[in-house]
Amino acid sequence: MALVGNHRKGHVMECITETFDTKNGTVDGVIVKWPGFSILMVTGPRGFLACPAIDVDACEGYGKAAAIIESGPDNPIGTLERFCQRKITKANRQAKALGIEEGMIAGDAFGLLA
């Protein structure tokens, strides 16, 4: 796991990455953290899973599989370990074609993205 800090005039942003091995290959997780807010996603050659800050419908026009993981201000994902355990709440057409469905546990979908 790599940890990089970027400090600007009292502003702190971190980027954390982690690689996950699946039976079909590897996928990469990334967290971009600001004070009080983070964006999390796991990416592979075939598409990605992300927190609700990403618009999966917009990704459909690019032909990439994309799905959203359950999260919110009252129950944020917070870590890539927790990301693996969350349910998928929305999947675009390309993600569904890979077998990624609403209700699926995110970690179970990693191999479908590799």
Describe the structure in your own words:
This protein has a single domain, classed as Hypothetical protein YunC (Hypothetical protein Ta1206 fold, 2-Layer Sandwich), CATH 3.30.1980.10. It has a 7-stranded mixed sheet. It has 114 residues and is an alpha+beta fold. The chain is 22% helix and 44% strand. The chain has helices at 56-60, 80-85, 93-98, 106-113; strands spanning 2-8, 11-22, 25-34, 37-44, 47-50, 65-69, 88-91. The chain is globular. Mean pLDDT is 89; it is low at 1-7.
Global shape: globular
Supply the helix-strand structural class. Answer: alpha+beta
The CATH class is Alpha Beta
Residue runs with pLDDT of under 50 for 5 or more positions: 1-7
CATH architecture verdict: 2-Layer Sandwich
Number of domain units: 1
**Succession of helices and strands:** EEEEEHEHEHH
Strand fraction equals 35-45%
β-strand number? 7
Radius of gyration: 14 Å
Our count of helices gives: 4
Strand order of the largest sheet: 1-2-3-4-5-6-7
Mean residue pLDDT: 89
- Give me the CATH fold name: Hypothetical protein Ta1206 fold
Give a quick account of the main beta sheet: strands, pairing sense, barrel closure.
7 strands, mixed
Helix content: 10-25%
- Cα(first) to Cα(last) distance is 19 Å
Oligomer, anyone?
single chain
CATH superfamily descriptor: Hypothetical protein YunC
